[in-house]
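User: quick one - fold this with flavin mononucleotide bound?
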Amino acid sequence: MKELPKFYNNLDLTLQEIEYLLNRGVKDRKSSFHYTMLCTINNKTPESRTVILRNFNKDKFELNIHSDSRSGKITQIESNNNVSCLFYDDKKKIQIRINGLAKIEKSYQPSWDKLTNWSRRCYLSEHKPGTEVVKPSSGFPEKFVNESPNDEESIEGLKNFAVIKVIIDSVEWLYLASQGHRRAIFKIKRKSLPFSIDKKWLIP
Ligand SMILES: Cc1cc2nc3c(=O)[nH]c(=O)nc-3n(C[C@H](O)[C@H](O)[C@H](O)COP(=O)(O)O)c2cc1C
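Assistant: Sure. Structure tokens for the protein plus flavin mononucleotide:
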């Protein structure tokens, strides 16, 4: 039988593992936590999509995701900012479900400054994401298919660039083990500063 990890029966170590996985997700493209499934509410219907985890702020317990400010998810968040992010690491057998409130920061320069001109191409499409077209298209100008825009050309994309900040309310943990699964809930209590985290085991 597989040896059990130190966090198996320890809520503090479980929280440490969550923080470690989210941090690694930001930095390591190969980590399963580099991607998350962001779920929003479209009128009354849930809608999910894969997005990249761009930042985890441990001091504020917030996540950052980048997107086109004209995309459907942004419109949905503007009318209902309750969101959920789902992560799963198949090797570690760990799932985490984050619920929180999203805040949109349009044309957020500090995050834009960290992008390469190659990545900024995605924000150069003339039509908004999801627009129906007759011919298949990347959306951005043809000349950027093989060539990166220069600084002057790429800055055009800033007006379409947005950071989705997820202010975390709760993190639900699930660890699968043949000896018995472990499930826990961490609630971020923001009424007092610095915030506190309420930790509880749950039946899996
Ligand atoms: C691996 C992968 C990573 C993605 N990363 C992002 C991302 O970081 N931000 C984003 O807006 N869309 C990303 N997408 C595209 C979204 O999944 C989605 O198709 C698109 O944003 C339109 O979603 P919406 O119409 O619901 O807004 C990614 C897709 C895949 C497959």
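One thing worth noting: The helical segments are 11-27, 72-79, 109-113, 117-120, 151-154.
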